[in-house]
Amino acid sequence: MKKIEFARFIERYLDGKMENAEKKWFEAELEGNPGLQKELELRKKVNKYTANQEAIAFRQTLMNAETRHRKAAAAGKGKAKKLVRYAAIFAGLMLLGSVSLYLTGDIGNVDYADKYSPEYTPLSVSRSLSADMDEAYMKATDLYQAGDYSEAIRWFNMIVDEDMQLEYMKGTSHMNIEQYTEAIGSFNRVVEDNDNLFIEDAKFYLGICYLQTGQDNKARPVLEGISGSDSRHSRDARKLLRKID
């Protein structure tokens, strides 16, 4: 089963759209697939984060409404003016709450790579490399999963193989240690290959790396393409586009 297909099943499962038979199959698949379990947990975290972001947007809507009310009431007298003062205090308290909760993420310079850091569990694949190359691949994968990205890259570079999972992991490794130019190279190779399971994620992280390196002009068309697709990153892409417009 391809990862991109699993992503769609995860969305249906979390949205409660599965029929009983499909749900039983999916839960049985979960029990024997640690990678799928981690992917499901990651998606739950993303949904929780998104819900928090939507709550902030709702607060902003309330603040805008209070501001309009204040301006309309400014021409009034007596009680109307007192209500405006209370509304301003209320809006101010809401603003302080939002700032204190999201100061590091939404105010000032944004570290896009920190907000959208890649998490990936390598798929188990059968390989036809030599014993030495296969050992290097396993070593690199173990280092990658342990978070030792610099060493993982060193081992990945020993492998002469056009494997897009390898290339994608190299890209995310570079990204995790802030080597964004090198990450851009790897993600571009995955996207240009156009026949692998990692294109959806590689495109999104490519856009992130462009933003991190100040290349908004390159990030914009990448994110626009994602935002108009059925990619699981489409909502995040639209949020990022609003930040750079």
Portion of residues in helices?
over 70%
Strand content: under 5%
What is the molecular shape? globular
- Count of individual helical segments: 12
Major sheet summary line: none
Q: How many DSSP E strands?
A: 0
The topology string of helices and strands comes to HHHHHHHHHHHH
| Average predicted confidence as pLDDT | 75
Span between N and C termini?
Answer: 38 Å
Poorly predicted runs: 93-108, 124-128
Secondary structural class: mainly alpha
Q: Work out the radius of gyration.
A: 23 Å
Task: List the main descriptive attributes of the protein structure presented here.
245 residues, 75% helix, mainly alpha
Chart the SSEs and their pairings.
Layout (H helix, E strand, L loop, with lengths): L2 H12 L5 H12 L2 H40 L5 H28 L5 H4 L15 H15 L3 H8 L7 H13 L3 H14 L5 H14 L3 H12 L6 H11 L1
Folded structure, characterized:
The structure is a single chain. This protein is an all-alpha fold and 245 residues long. 75% of the residues lie in helices and 0% in strands. It contains 12 helices and no strands. Helix 3 (34-73) packs antiparallel against helix 4, helix 6 (131-145) runs antiparallel to helix 7 (149-156) and helix 10 (199-212) packs antiparallel against helix 11 (216-227). The longest helix has 40 residues, at 34-73.
Summarize the structure.
With 245 residues, the protein is an all-alpha fold. The protein contains 12 helices and no strands.
